[in-house]
TrEMBL record:
GO terms for cellular component: cytosol. This is hydroxymethylpyrimidine kinase. Its EC number is 2.7.1.49. PROSITE patterns: PROKAR_LIPOPROTEIN (PS51257). InterPro entries: HMP/HMP-P_kinase_dom, PM/HMP-P_kinase-1, Ribokinase-like. It is an enzyme of class 2 (transferase).
Amino acid sequence: MKTVLTIAGFDPSSGAGVTADLMVFAAHGLFGTSCITALTVQSTMGVRAFYPVEASILSDSLACLDDDLPPAGIKIGMMGTRAAVATVCDYLERLRRRGSDIPVVLDPVIRSSSGRELLEPEGVDLLKKRLLPLVDWVTPNHSELGWLTGRSDIKSKEETVRAAEDLQREVIGHGGKPLNVLATGGDIIPPDDLLVTLASRHHWMSGEHVETSSTHGTGCALSSALLCRLVLGDDLITATRNAKSYVAEALRSAVPIGRGRGPMNHL
Ligand code: PLP
């Protein structure tokens, strides 16, 4: 059985972070391992605080797992601090030096949808300069794409395409290979479309809006499902399409729990 690794934060309400990622991995028949970057304090009502895990613990965990359960793919989510970003970069550089070409998907978590900062500003800077050139995919939502490119003007499909191209150019400028960008529509019109930019080719995938309040951890689930589909052998476009369908079904079948934005259904 193939093993896939998530490097992300812990959400005690199980809607996002490593717990959600592990459920997505299991739903795809893959064995999931996890390294926690930070403990968050949150419920369906939003994130109250986060406490970073010491970088040495993260680095030891990555080395320990790699020794025994080397991953067939890696998903990176919330990192919290610059130190965590640096630790993850060191690990990926070691893998690349060994000749590993496993897929690495980065969900660039910068802020929760409840508005809490989940990556310190120095971490955002390092993520752009050092981490993005080491990954194969990045899956920003509309706001994250704006923060990563310094564009506050993304209000249309054309501007989304330009921002994705900016991001790719910047990564190549920092010595990376062509980055695949999966940008989610967020609040642009129509809201549930996805842009997939592979090298210089753009593909829009039309979205189906699922009316539900159970949207906590949608970004975590999409990036994890994308990684699973890539590890299972889908080509890039099919992987995106299947990941998108997975998320739509998890939203459709979600049962409301909690007083706020509840979790999706991965069972
Ligand atoms: N908590 C953790 C640990 C996360 O990784 C994330 C997002 O990736 C969130 C919270 C925020 O999730 P949401 O924006 O769906 O509330």
